[in-house]
């Protein structure tokens, strides 16, 4: 194959992947919240204000690893049981790889002043609930990572996966010259999408959180966010810093202070 033929194939694959991604995003977050809230402690507050960034932590190092296991197990099981016969070899390969896609997440809620969130992110220390304007936090052109609503109902997750399986199988069937180029591109695209679905799937018992998540996959986007490291609950913890739409400008709409020993003094500070 000459260079021109190769470029045409890649361009076709990119268009297909972009259309599929936009279709799935529209199903996940069809009525996005205008404000989301980020719960943090004093160090997080100072860090966000001074850097103008939000930290997204590697998915393998989140505070509660069990909440992500549920999503990956649900996705793996449903794909295994429902993969189309025509493209089964492709999906077998996807299932062996999708859980290992490098992914970073930052967590938010549409609920402010929620007791469970204060407990999770601030403990016995003074905490802050920061309200951000979502229109300044995400784009669909890879300038910023997508901001997606977490799914708590299993039937919605399964419906999303079924739509993905059908679209991929349709592409597989309608392209009789499906070769190594298409295979590599589809594997990467579908693995990343199933990984994203896993990362925004949580058990129904967490539904009161009404969570949103930034999803950043460095190998699947042109956006280049250099990895940083911090000490975390489980040891060395990778993270990336996500800018807002206007660099170094924090689109804060509100700051709420948690119950504390001297509220008036904390408010003045």
Topology, pairings included?
Blueprint: H1 3-28, E1 35-41, H2 42-51, E2 53-58, H3 66-82, H4 88-95, E3 104-109, H5 115-122, E4 127-133, E5 147-149, H6 154-173, H7 180-199, E6 211-216, E7 228-232, E8 235-243, E9 252-257, H8 263-268
Helix pairs in contact: 1-6, 1-7, 3-6, 3-7, 4-7, 6-7
> SSE order in H/E notation?
HEHEHHEHEEHHEEEEH
Outline, from the CA principal axes?
A: elongated
- Taking the alpha carbons of the first and last residues, their distance comes to 66 Å
Beta strand %: 15-25%
Considering the chains and any ligands shown, give keywords for the structure.
269 residues; single chain; 6-stranded antiparallel β-sheet; 3-stranded antiparallel β-sheet; alpha+beta
Short description, anyone?
With 269 residues, this protein is α+β, with helices and mostly antiparallel strands.
């Amino acid at each position: 194959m000459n260079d021109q033929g190769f470029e045409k194939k890649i361009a076709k694959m990119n268009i297909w992947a972009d259309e599929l991604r936009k279709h799935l995003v529209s199903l996940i977050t069809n009525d996005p919240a205008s404000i989301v809230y980020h719960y943090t402690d004093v160090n997080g507050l100072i860090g966000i204000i001074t850097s103008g960034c939000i930290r997204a932590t590697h998915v393998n190092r989140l505070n509660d690893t069990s909440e992500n296991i549920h999503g990956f197990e649900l996705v793996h099981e449903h794909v295994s049981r429902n993969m189309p016969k025509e493209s089964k070899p492709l999906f077998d390969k996807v299932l062996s790889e999708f859980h290992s896609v490098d992914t970073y997440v930052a967590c938010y809620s549409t609920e402010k002043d929620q007791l469970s969130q204060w407990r999770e992110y601030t403990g016995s220390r003074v905490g802050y609930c920061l309200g951000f304007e979502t229109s300044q936090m995400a784009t669909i052109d890879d300038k910023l990572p997508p901001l997606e609503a977490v799914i708590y109902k299993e039937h919605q997750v399964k419906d999303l996966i079924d739509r993905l399986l059908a679209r991929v199988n349709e592409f597989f069937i309608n392209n009789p010259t499906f070769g190594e180029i298409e295979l590599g591109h589809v594997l990467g695209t579908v693995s990343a999408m199933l990984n994203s679905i896993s990362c925004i799937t949580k058990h129904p018992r967490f539904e009161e959180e009404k969570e949103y998540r930034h999803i950043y996959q460095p190998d699947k986007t042109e956006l280049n966010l250099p990895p940083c490291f911090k000490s975390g609950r489980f040891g060395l913890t990778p993270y990336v810093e996500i800018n807002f739409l206007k660099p170094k400008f924090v689109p804060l709409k509100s700051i709420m202070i948690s119950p504390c020993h001297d509220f008036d003094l904390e408010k003045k500070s």
